[in-house]
Amino acid sequence: xxxxxxxxxxxxxxxxxxxxxxxxxxxxxxxxxxxxxxxxxxxxxxxxxxxxxxxxxxxxxxxxxxxxxxxxxxxxxxxxxxxxxxxxxxxxxxxxxxxxxxxxxxxxxxxxxxxxxxxxxxxxxxxxxxxxxxxxxxxxxxxxxxxxxxxxxxxxxxxxxxxxxxxxxxxxxxxxxxxxxxxxx
Length: 185
Hints:
By secondary structure, the protein is of the alpha+beta class. It has five helices and seven strands. The strands form two sheets. The chain has a four-stranded antiparallel beta sheet with strand order 4-3-6-7, with helices on one face. The longest helix has 18 residues. The radius of gyration is 17 Å and the shape is globular.
């Protein structure tokens, strides 16, 4: 009976993963990521169920171009920061390393967690194109969007935002250079 229960759980997970694939709509991806984020925020345990982790990984492996903002949220929840977007077709991503390393491009936001003051450090970027830092609440609503000079280290203030968890992304010319979860104490 235990084996049957385990097999049923495995079949459910496999079915869930098959439902979240490169063909999932951006709205479905965002809804799934928001549901997981909400459950995690309300839970006293700071971990995902096996099904949630599997769903998030399937979404996070998609290209943002096809999968939408839910892909960024899934990556942030899984703490897969600094993903480059090599996708121009329906190919999926491989799990990322923790930093951008292609062509010596880097975009880093620190310290995290923060008390309100952050630093954005960028290098190896196009010199003439502004870099934007976008801050989102856990519902995916854009709260703040600020332009910065590329290839510099500049201060970013979150003093206007209440304590809590946020998602961020660093963008230049429509390309996501870095994304993740940010905590303000």
